[in-house]
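User: Predict the complex.
Assistant: Input components as received:
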Amino acid sequence: MNAPAPGLPGSGLPASRLPASRRSAAAAIRAGTGARIGLVAVALIASALFPLVFTNQLVLSMAFFTLIYIAAAVAWNLFSGYCGYISLGHAVFFGSGAYAAGIAARDLQITGTAEFALLPLAGAVAALIAIPFGLIALRVRRHTFVVITIAIFFIFQLMAFDLKTTGGTAGLYAPFLVWGPVVFNQRFYYMALLLAAATVLIGWLVRRSRFGLQLRAIRDDEDRAASLGVRAMPVKLTAFVISATLTGLAGGLWFFFVGQVVPDSGFNPIFDLTVALMAFLGGLATVAGPLLGALIIEPAQQDLTSQFSNGYLSQILLGALFLAVVLFLPRGLIPTVGGQIQVWLARREPHLPAAGSGSNEPAADQQAQASGAVAEGTSL
Amino acid sequence: MATELIRAVINGILGGGVYALMAVGLTLIFGVLDIINIAQGVMVVLGAYLSYALSVHLHIDLFVGLLITIPAMFLIGVTVQWAFIRPLRGSERTSMSLLASYAVAIVIEGFLYLAFGPNFVTLNASYVTQSVHLLGFYLPDIEIYGFAMAVALVAALYAILYRTRFGQSVRATMQDRTAAILVGIDVNRVSALTYGIGVAVTAAGGMIFGASGGGFNPNSGYDLISRLLALIILAGLGSIGGALVASVFMLTVESIVDIWQPTWSVAVFYAALVIVLMVKPTGLFGRQAVRAQ
């Protein structure tokens, strides 16, 4: 991580006490913040009006799945992106949320809209699973961590297949909702929007908090972070549990919408890969990256699946897209594009009022500041 | 009871030999390239399908077909390494390589679906259905041949690693990549060849896997890779001898558990993995500290 350039929001230095050159940089950043707030407002209004404009039911259900994936990808990034432990087992939480809601609805004989009271349970069960899962898996790092998450994922998929209470290959059915198709899709859309917005908000709050800084310190160098007083295990575990809870909620809501969960759909290895791909495509450890990734990938995938009768071609395309991202956009869209824009701006205005002498050095300083601003600017 | 137990142990050892072959390839790739090749599972399945295509369409015997499929898988491995693994650089290399090999697995799986469909197939030959009567047990011929070949190939790998100059470079690269470069080893070449060899053995492993199991389809790779990963982590990443021991041991344990609990025998793999790592995070034979970042 680059050190934040002085005068940036949150650095604690009032812009007026900075040299002139830095003040102008700070003003640029502040303008950027304003633009960002505007962008968020526009996005929120647009997404709130979306179901009123697009009344096609297929489009609405696609939008619902996209929102679920936004929540899942942002939640995944909140743990794996921020602290660098790549989890390929988040489907455990997605599936557990769905199954918890399904089992409770069946055993408590819950019908109709009362099912939504089970959503907190879906989140809570995912969180409860995440604690022992995390305590075991977070003891090891890198490859081994990834493999452990895969192994635990397969244990859960096996349990969904073979336990009596999960209904085996037939799976579980959600309570029937007596809503018309239009109302059904609209209401689920807004619930998913609420979940996605809340997840993004939590992701943003964590990113700018001390906790988020600790997570990123762990990602950069866990041993050094620990020696500087970061209590690595509790920090990692907290992020893991928060991420799991949000993923479990997404799983519960997805289950109510789809109406049925089977082991292969609840505990789906492609889910693990897809959320990771979304985060990587948008930009790991950024707030908006996974959101952008989900917005690109999920509609594309839904569209491909509806166009080709067999899903294999879309599977090949997903894999090919993944390879393209890994090879050509290893930093993700937002950091790459953000970096390009900053470089372009810095080239266009090479003579910002420089503090002190007229030597060439301040220009280099500007460049460095610009790149510092890139690093910080990409945080949203 | 006792006969069932002995039978389970024999099955475990025979199956373990084949798994050892595939696991050694995986752990070798890890040791040299510092990546986990998630695609190994689907490459085994690809190897099995290559044998299947040769035997069904060209009527080539399964073992003779290996003369074609092993070089073919070697070339596929070298190509994949060249195209998708070699370009990865930087601090995110670990996670990127995992994702890249996972993506390769998805693409190969998709192509296998397109070419062969989702139905389960099995490899057929006279020795697949025949069995020998030995010490009161019926042992399928294919498992005995397969075990013999796996032992031979593992021995050949050992010979290459410990008796040739190339093997010396491979071991040097595994120990310390930077130092290997400094003494003049072409680590790029070593990496490409190692990846190729690690993938090439899946052709043999896949043929036996496809002939001795209850059939396979393009999706079989996931189950396989999760077992292989469990094995090499259990053994300690990069430990070749450990992979051999762990494969035979775990397959034996699995087939013993299978006597009482057929549905849960697979879970033994993962449960053993979780327990071992809680006690010894480096794995059973791991010299390399996997905890070190």
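Chain B touches chain A through 49 residues (CB under 8 Å).
Let me know if you want any component modeled separately.
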